[in-house]
Amino acid sequence: QVQLVESGGGLVQAGGSLRLSCAASGTSFSITRMGWYRQTPGKQRELVATITSGGSTNYAESVKGRCSISRDNAKNIVYLQMNSLKPEDTAVYYCNIQSGQFVLRDYWGQGTQVTVSS
Question: Long-range contacts: 61-66, Cβ < 8 Å, 24+?
Fold first, then answer.
């Protein structure tokens, strides 16, 4: 059974930094893509950043230049370093992985709250 355990969320002042971590376990196949999404009440979950097993990254325009995603393929851990945080970054952040043999499946973490105070 695939499990994603997130950590690193919390309360930070505007301009501060946080580092989120997500450890994946229980996968039978290699993880092709890992990423972070976020969601605020009443809104759809949105992409923050993704990274492939080869290291290719993709960022939402709103976080480009402020966030950096990385992964440890040996440990199946993905990190999100967030700098220069803004109040509008406040959300529940969800870890996501894609894994599978012939069909890729999405797996989600339970979410970690990030709150940025002004």
Answer: 62/88, 63/89
For residue 18, the Cα-to-chain-centroid distance in whole angstroms is: 12
Q: 33 near 98, Cβ under 8 Å?
A: yes
Residue pair 90/82 in contact by the 8 Å Cβ criterion: no
Write out pLDDT tens, residues 14-47.
999 999 999 999 998 889 999 999 999 999 999 9
Q: How far apart are CA 114 and CA 72, in angstroms?
A: 23
C-alpha to C-alpha distances, 47 to 13, 27, 29, 44, 79, nearest whole angstrom = 23, 22, 24, 10, 15
